[in-house]
Amino acid sequence: MSDNLRIENQIEINMPCHVVWDMLVNPEQTKKYMFGCSAVSEWKVGSELLWKGLLENEEMIFVKGKILEIEPGKMLIYTVIDPNAPIADIPENYLRVRYSLAENRGVTTLTVVQDGFENAADGQRRYAESINGGQGWMPILQQIKEIAES
After folding, report:
1. What is the CATH number of the domain that holds 127?
2. Can you tell me whether residue 30 is helix, strand or coil?
3. From the CB of residue 63, how many other CB atoms can be counted at a distance below 10 Å?
4. Which of 22, 100, 123, 147 lies in the 20 to 30 Å Cα band around 2?
5. What was the pLDDT predicted at 1?
């Protein structure tokens, strides 16, 4: 398997960083663009991050992870795993996601990097699903932009 399995996408959003940051950490906002899932966390290093949603009217955790680094308004790094997938829930099987925000004259550049596939169980398949036909995170970033700017 390649040791360079990494997804990186970037978008400019015509809003200041604090608005974009709220889109990333506010459960009511994440629900609008992350397939109906609310991101629930204490937003501190080491705290759990749960992506909760409904499946057939039952609350379910679709993705879980931990906050690795956080600098409010600027950067967030967390791990992710599908707790419903048939892979072991061990640190090596978690992927990493990094959000970086930079503002210039009221316009925020949001960069998302997802990596860790090469050492994770089923990493090649998970990468293929996440790269999304070459689009990666762009459909989600476009929704964040549309919601933030509206």
Report:
1. 3.30.530.20
2. helix
3. 23
4. 100
5. 43
Report the amino acid identity of residue 67: I
How much is the pLDDT for 2?
Answer: 47
* 101 strand-pairing partners: 110
Type of residue found at 85:
A
Residue stretches of the chain with pLDDT short of 70: 1-3
Tell me the Ramachandran region of residue 149: left when phi exceeds 0, alpha when psi lies from -120 to 50, beta otherwise. Answer: alpha
82: DSSP letter: -
Q: Which amino acid is at 70?
A: I
For the chain, the distance separating the N- and C-terminal CA atoms, rounded to the nearest angstrom, is 42
Strands (E), 4-143: 7-13, 38-41, 48-55, 58-71, 75-80, 95-104, 107-115
Residue with tokens 């759990």: 48
The answer as to whether 94 is a domain residue is yes
